[in-house]
Amino acid sequence: MLASETIAVAMSGGVDSSAVAAMLRAEGRNVIGLTMQLWNQRRLAGHAGMPESVQGRCCSIDDVYDARRVAETLGIPYYVVNHEERFERDVVRPFVEEYLAGRTPIPCSLCNNHLKFDQLLIVARQIGADKVATGHYAQVVFDEQRNRWLLKRPADRSKDQTYFLFGLTQEQLSRTLFPLGGMTKPEVRELARRQGLVIAEKPDSQEICFVPGGDYKRFLEAYLTEQGDAPADVSGEMVTTDGEVIGEHTGVHNFTVGQRKGLGVATGSPLYVIQIKNDTRQVVVGKDEELYSRTLHARRVNLISTAELPEPMRVAIKIRHKHQPAPAVIESTGPDEVLVTFDEPQRAITPGQAAVFYDGDIVVGGGWIEASQ
């Protein structure tokens, strides 16, 4: 990285991105702060029982204020870019549609893959910045032997965010910096303290930015009401794995694979959601051991460490963010599609989630889980 380069820092108002701006500024870099305004936190207040106050969460007005204060402290230019319309189109609407189709979406991956990095790099070019830096815990390096940019897991494995970044392209990686990749969270907070940043003790946000309290069911109802859309009739039967009807449910969006509580049926032994059938609107329940699968199909696959999969490859795979990577083999089954075969059956493989492939610390790529068996 050249001292003369101009770096646009994606500032969320949190500790991590603020520390990145401070680090680069202290190194003498030309730094510009950028915040993406993605969602009006007050928009659905009062709809369908949504809370009137939704402050103090990722991408809120408070966060924009905090980011601006940090920029002023560091003496760097700062801009807020409004992308609410595209965020709703590319993240919120697909989130709603996926749940109503009986799948469990990951809005953070959608946001990173289809909005944040794409649009940040465009804006960065417009304001004369050569690269973009973010507060994600990940690492990016160029491998001369492969002639490819690689995405790698960070030093602080407890903060690893590579699972949400599997969709980044070679072009995006070539212009992206992750300065926190070699640091731990306590080190980042200490850096923020030394730089005199007012947000040094600010807690991390743990929620989906547009879903207050994590209550996605209430959000779905409020959003559809605001849009003037009658909630889709996604009610149906609750059946066992052998086809016995044991009850009715009010909507497939109320369930996710692996769920035990809130099924609305009482039996002599614990039941779990095994499958959600969108075509028949049936929720299939069964015993815990029926949750395990050895294979899955993933679509819309993005490969990072290699351009293609000419033959099966051994990898370790995460099927959710907190999942311990499990040994498996991936093989191409068509354009942007792979079949995954695990060494050992995995619990609650969930359509709509991502399967991310690792070779040690290197992210091979990833895709969206379509089905398992």
Give a verbal description of the structure:
The protein folds into three domains: 6-135 and 179-214, HUPs (Rossmann fold, 3-Layer(aba) Sandwich), CATH 3.40.50.620; 233-286, Adenine nucleotide alpha hydrolases-like domains (SH3 type barrels); 292-372, Elongation Factor Tu (Ef-tu), domain 3. It contains seven helices and 17 strands. The chain is α/β, with parallel strands linked by helices. Helix 1 runs parallel beside helix 2 (61-74).
Whole-angstrom Rg? 22 Å
User: Number of folding domains?
Assistant: 3
Bin the strand percentage. Answer: 25-35%
Q: Tally the helices.
A: 7
- The H/E string reads EHEHEHHEEEHEHHEEEEEEEEEE
Topology of helices and strands:
Layout: E1 6-10, H1 15-26, E2 30-37, H2 61-74, E3 78-82, H3 84-100, H4 107-126, E4 131-133, E5 139-143, E6 148-152, H5 170-174, E7 176-177, H6 185-194, H7 216-226, E8 236-240, E9 245-249, E10 272-277, E11 282-286, E12 292-303, E13 313-318, E14 326-334, E15 337-347, E16 354-359, E17 362-372
Parallel strand pairs: 1-2, 1-4, 2-3, 4-7, 8-11
Antiparallel strand pairs: 5-6, 8-9, 10-11, 12-15, 12-17, 13-14, 13-16, 14-15, 16-17
Helix pairs in contact: 1-2, 1-6, 3-4
Key traits:
373 residues, alpha/beta, Rossmann fold, SH3 type barrels, Elongation Factor Tu (Ef-tu), domain 3, 3 domains, 6-stranded antiparallel beta barrel, 5-stranded parallel β-sheet, 17 strands, globular
